[in-house]
Design goal:
The structure is a single chain. This protein has 418 residues and is of the alpha/beta class. The protein has two domains: 232 residues, Protein tyrosine phosphatase superfamily (Protein-Tyrosine Phosphatase, Chain A); 164 residues, Gcn5-related N-acetyltransferase (GNAT) (Aminopeptidase, 3-Layer(aba) Sandwich), CATH 3.40.630.30. The protein is built from 15 helices and 14 strands. Strand 11, helix 14 and strand 12 form a beta-alpha-beta unit.
Length: 418
């Protein structure tokens, strides 16, 4: 359901497949991976078997040799080649930064240093990616900064748009708590001085790409002028190897009602959607706002439905039988849709519309004539989406409260069911 592959000792190993490109294709799943330190892998473990099962033929380690000496490297195996390319030449200690350090400009400046200092290593890394004939993984320590920069260059050359590149960078946020816990265990239970340690705000990647383009004109120009590579030839090779047509057919969606055991998956689905929004400047959801306890309560007090495409979680929604916070006291005439969520980039086209249709069928089954929802008043794009599905605005709630944060204004929308 999400890009992170499950390992016991790795927290940020994920597939770059599925992202759409400007020419209508997508990155082929199962060919290009990014990760936190593969030095955590040990032979003879379930993690090692899982890693080998991916068929990876090339491992690129972007860390300093001193980091490798201290924390170890991936065990050697005959199935893949290993290359260490230390792209960062000016060390910096994120955990020790002062609490008032803004992560967006700070990280963007550090990434520009890497872009200017690590040209030889970045050139070799791109050449390795373009020449690989089997799946490839690249990693650093947390899989965020150095790994994020290389991922950004590759995705840009593949034709992935900037919001999606920033979104991909920000997905480390789904692993931040685990990465932070690891750091604390390695440092005698201490917490980092910098509250932003392990964070990956989309704005940092956007700021870096802005700086890069301001200095060089474009990512292609950087590849040509700083790395000494032919960007058109490199892009053509990467696209030939790593892209595929978007699927013409998808598995049909199947629905099942959620149980309390589904709460962790629902949290990750919502947080993935929140990161998708933030990368596109939509200020609506924030990661971490809804916990597992929230979804357990919604399962117990109403209905939560999951939609699967084959074995993949494609989306979910909550259905409430009352909603006084937005609509006030009402007779039992409606069901109320909340948290309509789809898996970014990996759900079949039309999944959102299918979720709405399913919610409306549940409303009919409860013999209620209306399906209702509320839409953040500052999100006209979402309101237009619901209007296209037959919902109409019937009022405004200027100060809705949902139990967290400040009150906010919503547009009340409903659809009368035939």
């Amino acid at each position: 359901m999400d890009r992170h592959l499950t390992f016991d000792g790795l927290h940020n190993f994920r597939d770059l497949g599925g992202y759409p490109t400007a020419d209508g294709r997508r990155v082929r799943p199962g060919l290009l991976y990014r990760s936190d330190s593969l030095g955590r892998l040990d032979e003879g473990t379930a993690d090692w078997s899982r890693f080998l099962s991916l068929g990876i033929g090339t491992v690129i380690d972007l860390r300093y040799p001193a980091e490798i000496a201290k924390w170890g490297r991936i065990p050697a195996a005959g199935s893949f080649t290993y290359t260490n390319l230390s792209v960062e030449h000016r060390p910096y200690h994120q955990a020790g930064l002062s609490p008032d350090t803004d992560p967006v400009p700070y990280l963007a400046d550090r990434y520009m240093e890497v872009a200017q200092d690590g040209t030889e290593e970045l050139r070799e890394a791109l050449e390795l990616v373009s020449s690989a004939t089997a799946p490839l993984v690249f990693h650093c320590a947390s899989g965020k900064d150095r790994t994020g920069q290389l991922a950004a260059l590759i995705l840009s050359l593949l034709g992935v748009d900037e919001p999606t590149i920033a979104e991909d960078f920000s997905l480390t946020e789904l692993a931040t708590a685990s990465l932070l816990a690891d750091w604390t265990r390695r440092n005698d239970g201490r917490a980092p001085d910098w509250p932003a340690f392990g964070r990956a705000p989309a704005g940092a990647m956007r700021a870096f790409l802005t700086l890069l383009k301001s200095r060089y004109g474009s990512v292609d120009a950087y590849v040509r002028d700083a790395l000494g590579l032919d960007p058109e030839a490199l892009a053509a090779t990467l696209r030939e190897r790593l892209l595929e047509p978007s699927p013409a057919t998808w598995p049909p969606l199947t629905y099942r009602e959620a149980t309390p055991e589904d709460a962790p998956a629902l949290v990750r689905l919502r947080d993935s959607g929140a990161l998708w929004m933030l990368a596109r400047g939509i200020d609506q959801w924030k990661p971490g706002e809804k916990t597992e306890a929230h979804f357990v309560r919604r399962v117990q007090e109403g209905e939560v439905w999951l939609a699967h495409a084959g074995d993949t979680l494609a989306g979910a929604y909550e259905l409430w039988w009352s909603d006084e916070a937005a609509w006030g006291p009402r007779p039992p005439e409606a069901a109320y849709i909340h948290r309509l969520m789809t898996t970014p980039h990996l759900s079949p086209p039309g999944t959102g519309a299918s979720l709405l249709t399913h919610a409306e069928s549940r409303t009919r089954a409860a013999t209620r004539p209306y399906t209702r929802l509320d839409c953040l008043s500052t999100n006209p794009r979402l309101r237009a989406y619901y209007e296209s599905a037959g919902y109409r605005a019937v009022g405004e709630q200027p100060a809705k409260r949902d139990g967290s944060g400040s009150p906010y204004a919503v547009t009340l929308m409903e659809k009368r069911l035939d």
